[in-house]
Design brief:
By secondary structure, the chain is α/β, with parallel strands linked by helices. About 40% of the residues lie in helices and about 15% in strands. It contains eight helices and seven strands, in the order E-H-E-H-E-H-E-H-E-H-E-H-H-E-H. Helix 1 packs across helix 7. It is globular. The protein binds nicotinamide-adenine-dinucleotide (NAD). The site of nicotinamide-adenine-dinucleotide (NAD) has 27 residues, from helix 1 and helix 6.
Amino acid sequence: MKGTRLAGKVCIVTGAGSARGIGWATVKKLASEGARHIYVLDIATDELPGLVDSLRGEYLETQITIVRADVSDDDAIRSACDRAVQENGQLDVFFANAGGAKGGFNTFIKDMSADTYLGTMKLNALSCFLAVKYASEAMSKTNPDGGKGASGGSIILTASVAGLSSAQGAVDYSSSKAAIISLARNAAHENLILRNGVRVNALCPGFVRTALSDTFLGTASELSSVNSGAPGAVLRTGVPAELANAVCFLASGKSYYVTGQPIIVDGGLSVFIADNP
Ligand code: NAD
């Protein structure tokens, strides 16, 4: 169904190179809400031309540009923000979603190398820092509202419920996601003081069925044990479109009063996770 919640918005989405991922589901959602131009940035772009073609007939008003880049590369993120402003005169939304675990999800601390730990911090936490640094600057120059109105820029960082608790066998991943939640809080704080209208929030998914989660959930199609340790939680994995709905809310002016927050979309898992990590 087509909407207008993001009509005219210029967006950058990272980590949208897989048809089954949260990033691509979000690109579709932003297009369905009338986004003007979406830059899709990923290190793996093979699937993207076909995916973009599949959307073209449906959402004619949305231009989609594929950018092959590493999200932890300072120059790449700065250039992506500059390019969005040069080509459109504005940048409204940055969804920093690319991420992963360099050591997989089964490496205990005693077996994890410092390189692996740092590699994941770079992929997840540093990339979000760069997104905040360059997107805040671009947004506050091109979309100033003085913190009073219902527009302004929105930066959404993909963290995880693993950043709110722990992830057995993936301390690098869990630590990096905790850093992202702290980054969102700090960046929101600074932007509020600057009164530049830029909001920053951290999306915290629970278990979502994607290529990434295949590596720790296995590939069985029925996953009735997911969330079963959390009484009352939804007994299934989330689907990427459910995360995309939350991102769309955070990207739009409907969430103007929300900044610096972890936004948890996990079927209720984290309600119990503090007692039962
Ligand atoms: P996914 O594999 O579809 O998405 C990850 C994307 O990041 C891929 O397209 C990959 O090519 C890209 N990527 C990896 N390294 C990159 C780099 N250096 N530069 C640019 N792009 C890079 O999996 P997903 O589950 O949709 O993951 C999206 C985000 O959601 C990740 O940050 C992940 O940590 C987070 N997350 C996922 C789950 C889950 O259960 N699937 C749960 C919590 C958080």
